[in-house]
Amino acid sequence: MRFEWFVARRYLRSPYRPAVLRLVTLFSIIGVAAGVATLVIALAMNTGFRETLQDRLLGVTAHVSLTRPGSSGISHYQELGTKLAAFPGVRSVTPAVYQTVLLSFGGDARGMVVKGIDVEREKKGDEALQRIVSGKLDFTPDADGIEAVLVGKQLANEWKVSPGDYMTLTSPQGRLTPFGLTPRTRRFRVAGVFDSGFYDYDENWCFVPLTAAQQLAGSGDIVNVLEFRLQNPESATEVARQAEQAAGPGFLGTTWMEENRPLFRALRVEKLVTAIFIGLITFVAGLNILVVLSMTVTDKARDIAVLMSMGTRPSQIRKIFLWQGVTIGATGTIVGLAVGYLFAGIAGHYQLIPLDPQVYAVPYVPFHSSIFDGLWIALVAMSISVGATLIPARAAARLLPVEILRYE
């Protein structure tokens, strides 16, 4: 065992240390552990929100959307979709018609976003269509020729909608009649209920066959968007630019990052602010380490003088106190990491903290711990702990044995 570590350990474990010194040492370890654990939990929560929202968004929305602003829509969507689907990294290209309609059921009415889809293509990429919690994914018209519609779980629960019920969709894109412009109205049969995991989608979205949406809009055989789903969503920007060039003038490609930029930017800023403010807890704990070692230097001044008179070098004295600070910081860091990761793991697995999905879009607080976050948190905590030892260690190495032992 090295001499410096042997003496440092004896100082830390000595039963003859003053009670106040032992208490402050304990508080220093608790302070470092609390700062590290809180930071691990906070960053795991932030990462969990970001990854959960991203995964759910990518499951129910397009990675790239190709539109034609300023026109009535895309008429040659079948040929164009087949051409663009051959691009490297593109998993599927599906046409869609979006419009806002008035949904009526049982005396209630509200605005809804209806999405007209090519069922066979869409169900391979849209996870909402793969999460049918009631009824089934079957858009076959009934015996009376009434088309089918899929509604979200939240809407079904609020309005007590069940598969087999009938509802009416009214489009503001009206038809011109001798009596003026009248809205288009169609009756639909509820085929099933989906659970996308997003409150807004489950509350305000519904799916109908592409032809039914086109008839409801009175637009003919055109769509207003081609939706791309990619093997790697992070390559969306590159694919969007390629799709614009291949489609020709007038087309615009937008990515899922552009459409949700404010949300993810807010999460990044929140993570930075959280790290700064909670990191101050560890900084305060580092000041406690400085106090502990300063008090130890005062308490052990005679011991230091004896060691130096016996030939101990000033550099060895400095290392003794550096080892004490490193030990206190390392103990607090290890305890904090263990508590933080354990809490985040249990809370995330068992969904211990519920949320209001109307506000947060998810029903519970997701925790996704990152090894990288733990590494830089440990590095910062140890840096603060080591930095706090420099002044006391330097002061101990500058003690003059003659002045201390003169009157002994």
Summarize the model shown.
It contains 15 helices and 10 strands. The model has no long low-confidence stretch (mean pLDDT 86). It has 408 residues and is of the alpha+beta class.
Query: Major sheet, described briefly?
Result: 6 strands, mixed, barrel
Shape: elongated
> What is the succession of H and E elements?
HHEHEEHEEHEEHEHEHEHHHHHHH
Helix vs. strand class? alpha+beta
Share of helical residues? 40-55%
Mean pLDDT, rounded to whole units? Answer: 86
Number of strands: 10
Taken as a percent bin, the fraction of beta residues is: 15-25%
What is Rg? 33 Å
Low-confidence stretches: none
> How far is the first residue's CA from the last residue's CA?
31 Å
With strands numbered from the N-terminus, the spatial order across the biggest sheet is 2-3-8-5-7-6
Number of helices: 15
Give the SSE layout.
Layout: H1 3-13, H2 19-60, E1 64-67, H3 77-84, E2 90-105, E3 108-117, H4 119-122, E4 132-135, E5 148-152, H5 153-159, E6 166-177, E7 180-194, H6 199-204, E8 205-209, H7 210-217, E9 225-230, H8 236-247, E10 252-255, H9 256-259, H10 261-299, H11 301-309, H12 314-350, H13 357-360, H14 371-397, H15 401-405
Helix pairs in contact: 1-12, 2-10, 2-12, 2-14, 10-12, 10-14, 12-14
